[in-house]
Design goal:
The protein is α/β, with parallel strands linked by helices and 250 residues long. It has helices at residues 122-126, 143-148, 185-194, 231-235, and strands at 2-5, 12-15, 34-38, 56-60, 79-83, 102-104, 130-133, 150-155, 172-173, 175-177, 200-202, 223-227, 245-249. Strands 3, 4, 5, 6, 7, 8, 9, 10, 11, 12 and 13 form an eleven-stranded parallel beta sheet that branches. The longest helix has 10 residues, at 185-194. The radius of gyration is 20 Å and the shape is elongated.
């Protein structure tokens, strides 16, 4: 179960896993700033617009959820995530969230990313960039991702990196996560050459990457994650003294 507390009124509400079918139980928590929901039988978010103080909304593993349109009325939302919610298929309305800094739609059925082209990310840019996770979502066109332009973190886990050119010109990319996505050496070098500002790079389980020496001249890189099956990549740094932390996963 979860205990939710309203910071303004000290009202508390207990949520039992699998018991939440609507937002009536939360109606009195009007000062709630953060809401994390998991494993609930919600079909829509109707009623959530009454929680007008929400800044963070994370909904995970709610397979019946389909209609998320009510969330796009929460003008103060900074962080919005729908993870492992396969019924979620549309982002239409996300462009109405002027304070949004982070969006996660991993494990959804979203195919159309075009609403991202209308999203005003100027506030996020002033704070270092936007955070976007579209892993495990087979989108029709990734070009709208490029429209955002400045990323503090971009998670593309499960995306076919043969489609990397669709992303267009990402002006700033500070952290990239791409686990087992089939990145080959040429795409890897393309990313590195285009983004000297990279600070973190998570690319485990990408056996097509065989040489990491292109990273040695990156002044901003602090951390890279690879996996122990990437032996050629590991060997390419033997005898080198990189300035970044190298983390090797099993």
């Amino acid at each position: 179960h979860q205990i939710l507390r309203d910071r303004d009124t000290d009202e508390e509400t207990e949520l039992v896993m699998g018991s939440m079918e609507d937002f009536s139980a939360l109606a009195q928590l009007t000062g709630l700033r953060e809401l994390k929901i998991f494993c609930q039988p919600l079909r829509s978010l109707e009623g959530i617009q009454n929680l007008g103080s929400l800044e963070l909304l994370q909904i995970t593993a709610c397979p019946a959820l389909e209609d998320i349109s009510a969330a796009f009325a929460l003008q103060g939302l900074r962080d919005l995530t729908f993870g492992n919610c396969p019924g979620v298929s549309s982002l239409r309305g996300v462009q109405n969230l002027p304070a949004l800094r982070s969006l996660g739609i991993w494990g959804s059925s979203v195919r159309d990313l075009s609403p991202l082209c209308e999203l005003d990310v100027s506030a996020a840019e002033r704070e270092g960039g936007f955070t976007l996770s579209v892993g495990g979502t087979d989108c029709e066109d990734y070009a709208p991702v490029g429209a955002i332009g400045v990323f503090s973190r971009l998670d593309l886990n499960g995306v076919d990196f043969a489609r990397w050119p669709e992303l267009g010109s990402l002006r700033v990319l500070r952290a990239l996560s791409a686990h087992g996505d089939g990145i080959d050496q040429s795409v890897f070098e393309q990313i590195v050459a285009a983004h000297g500002e990279l600070e973190e790079l998570e690319i485990p389980y990408n056996g097509g990457i065989t040489d990491l020496r292109a990273l040695l001249g990156m002044e901003n890189l602090r951390r890279i994650v690879i996996s122990e099956d990437m032996q050629d990549a590991i060997e390419s740094l033997r005898g080198q003294k990189p300035d970044f932390e190298l983390e090797v996963w099993e």
